[in-house]
User: Fold Class I adenylate cyclase from Pseudomonas songnenensis.
Amino acid sequence: MIRTHHPIQPILEDGIDRKVLTTLRARFLALNDARLNRALAAMSTRQQQVLKLLPLLFHVNHPMLPGYVSASTPAGLAHFEPDSEQLAEAQRLSRSFAYRTVRGKTPRPIQGLFLMGSLGTVAQDEHSDLDVWVCHDPALDAQGLDELRRKCELLQAWAATQGSEAHFFLVDPQRFTQGQREARLTSDDCGTTQHYLLLDEFYRTALWLGGCTPLWWLVPDYEEHRYDDYVRTLLAKRFVRADEVLDLGHLGQVPPGEFVGAGLWQLYKAIASPYKSLFKLLLVEVYASQYPQLRCLALDFKRAIYQGHIELDELDPYIAAYHAIERYLSERGDQERLELARRCLYLKINRPLSWPPVHRNKSWQRTLLESMTRSWHWDERQFALLDNRSQWKVRQVSQERRALVNELTYGYRFLSDFTRRLQAVSPLTSRDLGVLGRRLYAAIERKAGKIEVVNLGISPDMAEDSLTLVHGYDAAGDVHWSLYQGQLTAPELSNFAPLKRARELLALLAWCHRNGIVDTGTHLSLFPGDSGLSEAELFALLSDLRRTMPMPLPQVDEEALLAACKPSRVLLLINVGLDPTLQNAAGLAGSEPVLPSAAAESLVLSIDQVTLNSWNEMLVSRYEGPKALPSCLRDYLENLAQRAELPQLQVFCFARNRGQLIARRVEQLFDDACQSLAGEAQGRYLLKIRQHFHVLQRDAGELRLINLVDRSALIEHLGEAHHAYLPLQLDRAALEGDDLALILAQQRAGCLQLFYRTAGELAEISVLDEYNALWRQHLPYRDERSLLRPLMRFLESMRYRRKAQQENQAQLLADAPIIFYRIHPEQGSQPARLERRPAPLEEINDPFYDVQAIVESGENGRSQVTLYCNQQEFSGLEYGAGLFAAVARAIISRRRDGERYPCYITDLDLTGLHGGGRSQTVQYLRYKARLEAALNAAIES
Assistant:
């Protein structure tokens, strides 16, 4: 304890006595020495050696001492001369070391050496870092700075061998006072969020090790608002020599944006280290609530020394911060938040009061903590609970998490409101804001399917010794799974509340795995009910979760957080609790399991998908029923829209018979679909499950799943116009043995391809148009030429009409070619094949009857048709419902003997229906077929 008996209140205008300044400096140094002694007392002998030697190691360059780089490395600590104890410590390290006092004005580029942080405070423990500020001459050149930086790295490595975690930070005082710095200045500093708040913490916690003393000490707190003028007077009138002091700036005004930046940084830190960071976050809130009449704790610290009220415990930075938080929360009536602040301070001090003191000697920290907790009215039960935090399991951790998340959420809202209210501009860059905001979102935000992270740095081990997993039904008859603590029997279940309930098994298992509740040593009892889940399958599920998504997860880097989240690992679990490969018929229970004849993909009854994304969020989805596989595949591909690199995919199936076959087939299907549809490219993927077809189609950035009940529905879908080339990838099992697979494999953009096959007196014609749409028609067959020539004539007429409508004549040369194929059916062991055929040629004696159709839009959405037969007009306006009968009579009248063979449309104009835009070939062919059907029906009747 240190006391002084008279206050000092220097007034600049009245003149300043140098003796007063000397007295003030002596008070600060006396307090500094007392804190330094406390810091040393809490250290081991080797750690003490590090702290004692630091000033000397920066003062000299000696090849046999730690940190030596070269003889030219900047060395020399201002106003420093080692004492006998420091020289003795140095000689223990190197017998060859001998210190020589240098006389005269030798350059001393190290202007000051300070420790910042918890050393010498109530929060110091054996793990406390040494954050050392090395304040250097601003005139040091780049080479000198590089060597000094290297020296710091070597000293850091040496300190580690002595059991000290040291961090050295080079500080240019001139640049620092201007708010410029190249690196973070503490091991808990985000680097860009704060300057004045960091300076406030420095002035409250810094331990001076040597060099110049802070000029800030000599400026009264009530003169902080005119700090620069006061300092100029002190230096100009030589009250203080400039080479004896170090100016790092003042705390006259803190810009409001710093509260936002520092608050968000503490919010981010609280995700992994909640108690320490929430305590600091509360202090930021206290400061922000006072704005603009802010009074930093460092100013209260300085005022106490000027007033002579020097009490080590009361001036302890953590105790002073707690009292400020306590006053603030008490005035607001926030008792719950105050209790959380007390828990934060208690756990930070880390002196378990339910345990006896070490060696029966109470430390000053323990004595102080006992005094404080008595005023809080805490009892032994509260001490025991907090002191055994390392043993907390899911119930206690979940309860504490709610308090922590409430505080995080409140803190974020407070800062957001503060920003809006004051239009505060944070020194955080937009990049930093994006990173911090997304870290918070990933850690605490809830969304559908997301596995909640319960343990936000609360307990080091949440693994339970034994658990009971139960399948059952709720009051509404819906399935759910429940997890109980301990190994319970069926009659005991009703006497206990479950730790967690979930509708899906995998959601519950993933929650256990993500939070470390189940590990390899946990005994798990299973009551499967009628779920079909076996113990072997349960343990296999947990094993696969551990293997594919090992915990703990590595820290997410900033680049990943700045990008949209995307899957990094995906685990698919097929038919959990179900086995379609087992016979269920009565009387066959003892027989060998038999694989049904259906394809492997048809045996997929359910899929549980566990996804770990690039933000370390774990999500679980379940798909059931006939559409489970295509629906899961659709969602999987949807998440890959913006992704060049595919996630790591693993598939497991635990069916006793052919489980690996099913898993391999599903993995193969996903890989094939990714090759076709991953990314932004437009395309389609076709798969068949049982007798149903499913088309996954990406068009204009949207991925759709189209379910088709049979082959006819598939052909109708393939014939739909889409006005953009859509390639179609067939799953390897989708159309096995079907001629349609041969046709679809020939897809080409900007090309018309005609395929035909014959069967007796009938032929089937298929056309793939320029956008890969399919048209199909059945016609009578006599020979190839009579079958193809009418269609060829129509396509040429359509192409000619398109060319005439195009403005750019250069496009004429690039118009769609027409290619012909004949399909030869399967014969014995020979599979079906395609034969390229030449285009049918026009012959001079070919009968040609020109039938042109013009289709326009009419009233009530109905089309108006006008037909021209050898230039004779037949309009729907004139003939109405008898249009086709009138045309049929005209055609028959021109035929010899009134023959009634089929008639074909030779030309078609759709511009009146589709506007000036170019219609797709499949639309022409569809209208052509309809008109021909109506016309030929009229001819036959």
